[in-house]
Specification:
The chain is mostly beta strands. The protein has three helices and 58 strands.
Length: 778
């Protein structure tokens, strides 16, 4: 014990026995459960004071950066007179590389408040000889790398000798060509110190670098013959692809032109598969018909080693018709990759392409020259069939159709990752199925990088320019394009998170763009600002239960957004109308950052039991007339609702908004729950047997509404000047039973002709023309 007139110092011991270890500085750092030395400092002065201590070893180099001990706490809080502080000291390594010796260490007590304090004490550290003076340590045990990429493998070396040591380091157990920087290193480590080195593993992207676990070992030797080693596992991850090709995807039955005696035929499609990965694969090659057809297809099961190529065939058995014309049937050939042994699907690899469309043309048994006896009827029938069966251009379902404001052009977006332009013919004599003529894709010619790399979710016209559209992708990116000639103008994307786009909407001046995403987020982008756009956001979530008085709603469940549009009445602030999961209908004032949850209810007086809202309930579509007087919504059980926008805005202005029942959203928006049922003008069941209405569209003046959905019906609803249906039943434009249709758009010409554009079965598009009489709505 050391006493002065300012402090009293108590030591738990003055002799410390320390054995150096290669992992001492890692294992003991931060651990004070068993300190090497406890030092208690008692404040015997008459002032509040804080204390700290320092250790100095005799023979230690000046200004060294090596930390050989740890003190907890570093500096104590100010203590009143008579109070005490205990410091815990852990030795991390030997202060000097002097083994089998005792080193005097000076302990110094310091205080910022007691400048005159100068207390020192000598303790002794007995340094024993380490058990092993050369050690190797791999801090990362489970290593993995994709062929074609680089992996850093850190290695720690410890020299616990009392003199510097030159060490040779060598890596074993892996292919030498995986380490372009070499597998041998020579380095010098100072006495008692450690050093970290790195090996860079870069296996080539070739099938020979098979997927699996490898054992690697790092060996270290010095000039005196001492050695040490450490091992770890290195996993080569799956990479590559399986190329799937059908050289002749179109076959004709019979293959010989004059063969007509047999009715049962088999079409053989040659295929080739090339395993361009580093993984053994069991491939199930299956054929699925695109429609209900009485054909039979054989599947093949193959096993391919990495780099292996094989040719096989797919057989489709069918019966030829006796009479008629050549039938065209479509099949999808799909290779499914599985692990050998377990049979599980391989998710790390994908076939390229994922599938191939097969076309089978089936000729009749009776040659056509025999059917010339009915030439007139046959020719007229064939001509009419050709007229009503245009070629499918899209190769996957169409997700979005937009009829541009001039009524002469249609733009469509599909899951096949293409956006296509179509010319509209308004001729009254043409059948509706032939009103569209494709004029090209929305991609810059001779520039493959402008091709879309994800499925198209939505296409929306820019109001200020009928020759521009916004294209929303599955990745969450929205691209702004000029369509004639095709040219990409801008892109809006938050790369930190892939968030699927479900709808986009512009303000009337096209300066603001709003995007709705599957995460429940609405993003606001500035268009043509000349600067990178950082969006404002609204996060739409669903309250699990109504809150108690004075408590905010619990909005921990996200509400996916399915549709949105902008309401901009003349002379008033704009609102974004948002439709989503849980039958959510919200209005967002992006200028005041206030959001309103509009209570959505079913009011069908003819229904015995109204549907129940659940996580499977959606408002599937939403559209606002350009004059901002009428808004239409549709839901997943087939209801269409018409809303008076003026009454809806008055409801927001006059509703009693209780701040203590509002929620502050994730991005600073305030949410209010508002009952505006008085704004509902009309509501009716439009879907057959409660099937979902997927899309609704209003004309600019709100006088006509078009709808389509899971029932396969395409309907046109005249709207009265009061905002209600002009009549209870719609004008049926077409019906495709057992077919779900995704998108619809509408345009009213100056001569009261309605054009309705929609997707139809077989990845096709169609424009319906309807000449209508005025019904009092203008």
């Amino acid at each position: 014990m050391l006493k002065t007139n300012l402090v009293t110092v108590e030591l738990s011991t003055q002799h410390i026995i320390f054995t150096p270890s290669d992992a001492q500085d890692f294992a003991r750092e931060g651990d004070i459960s068993a300190p090497d030395l406890e030092i208690t400092v008692v404040n015997t002065s008459q002032r509040f004071a804080s204390f700290q201590l320092a250790l100095y070893a005799q023979g230690q180099r000046q200004h060294t950066d090596t930390q050989w001990y740890q003190v907890e706490p570093n500096v104590c809080a100010k203590k009143p007179p008579g109070d005490r502080t205990t410091f815990f000291v852990n030795l991390l390594k030997a202060p000097i590389p002097a083994y089998d010796s005792t080193v005097p260490v000076t302990l110094e007590i310091l205080s910022a408040e007691l400048a005159e304090l100068a207390v020192t004490e000598t303790i002794y550290v007995q340094i024993l000889r380490p058990h092993k003076t050369l050690r190797v340590y791999l801090p990362v045990q489970d290593l993995s790398v994709y062929p074609g990429s680089r992996l850093r493998i850190p290695v720690l070396l410890y020299n616990l000798e009392p003199q510097p040591r030159e060490i040779d380091l060598r890596l074993k157990g892996a292919d030498l060509d995986w380490f372009p920087d070499g597998i041998e290193q020579t380095l010098v480590i100072e006495a008692g110190n450690s050093r970290e080195v790195s090996y860079w593993c870069a296996p080539a992207a070739i099938p020979q670098n098979l997927h699996g676990m490898r054992t690697i070992t790092v060996e270290a030797t010095d000039r005196d013959g001492n050695s040490a080693s450490a091992g770890s596992y290195l996993e080569i991850l799956p990479f590559g692809q399986t190329r799937f090709e059908v050289p002749a995807p179109q076959q004709t039955i019979p293959a010989q032109p004059h063969r007509w005696q047999t009715r049962a035929e088999t079409a053989i499609f040659p295929c080739s598969l090339h395993n361009q990965s580093n993984l053994d694969q069991h491939i199930e090659l299956q054929v699925e018909p695109q429609a209900q057809q009485p054909d039979q297809a054989e599947s093949n099961n193959l096993t391919l080693a990495p780099g292996e190529h094989t040719d096989t065939t797919l057989a489709i058995h069918t019966n030829r018709p006796w009479l008629g014309w050549t039938r065209t049937r479509f099949f999808e050939a799909i290779p499914r990759l599985r692990y050998i042994g377990s049979g599980e699907i391989i998710t790390a690899l994908t076939p390229q392409p994922a599938s191939q469309m097969l076309t089978l043309k089936v000729k009749p048994v009776v040659p056509f020259w025999v059917q010339l006896l009915t030439a007139t009827v046959g020719l007229l029938g064939l001509w009419w069939l050709w007229l009503l069966s245009p070629r499918a251009v899209h190769t996957a379902p169409v997700n979005s159709v937009v009829l541009l404001a001039n009524g002469d052009t249609v733009v469509s977006g599909s899951r096949d990752q293409t956006v296509r332009r179509w010319q509209v013919s308004r001729a009254a004599w043409l059948p509706d199925v032939r009103r569209l003529r494709e004029i090209g894709q929305l991609a810059e010619p001779n520039r493959p990088e402008t091709q879309f790399d994800r499925a198209i979710r939505v296409v929306e016209q820019q109001p200020a320019n009928v020759k521009r559209v916004a294209v929303g992708l599955d990745s969450g990116e929205v691209q702004l394009w000029a369509i004639d000639p095709p040219r990409q103008l801008d892109s809006f994307f938050e790369k930190s998170k892939l968030d699927r786009v479900f709808d986009v909407a512009f303000t009337q001046d096209s300066r603001q763009l709003f995007t709705g995403h599957g995460s429940g987020t609405v993003r606001q982008w500035s268009v043509d600002s000349g600067q990178p756009s950082v969006p404002k956001k609204l996060y739409l979530s669903y309250p699990k239960a109504m809150p108690a008085a004075g408590q905010p709603p619990d909005r921990s469940v996200s509400s996916a957004i399915t549709a949105l549009d902008v309401i901009e009445p003349p002379g008033q602030s704009g609102l974004v109308a948002i439709a989503g999961q849980f039958n959510r209908l919200a209005l967002w004032n992006w200028e005041t950052r206030q959001a309103y949850d509009i209570v959505y209810e079913w009011t069908d007086p003819e229904a015995d039991i109204l549907p129940v809202t659940s996580r499977h309930s959606y408002l599937t579509s939403l559209d606002v007339a350009d004059d901002a007087a009428l808004m239409a919504t549709a839901d997943s059980v087939g209801f269409i609702t018409l809303w008076d926008v003026a009454v809806l805005r008055d409801c927001l202005n006059t509703a009693k908004l209780t701040p203590d029942r509002a929620t502050i959203g994730e991005f600073g928006n305030r949410f209010f729950i508002v009952d505006c049922s008085s704004a509902q003008i009309d509501q009716w069941q439009a879907g057959r047997q409660g099937s979902a209405i997927r899309s609704v569209a209003l004309t600019d003046n709100g006088c006509y509404l078009a709808s389509t959905g899971d029932s396969g019906r395409i309907s046109l609803w005249p709207i009265a000047a009061t905002g209600e249906r002009h009549r209870a039943s719609p004008i049926g434009l077409a019906s495709f039973p057992n077919t779900s249709l995704n998108s619809i758009d509408i345009h009213l010409t100056t001569d009261n002709v309605v054009l309705v554009a929609t997707d139809t079965p077989g990845q096709q598009l169609q424009v319906y023309r309807k000449q209508l009489n005025s019904h009092g709505c203008q």
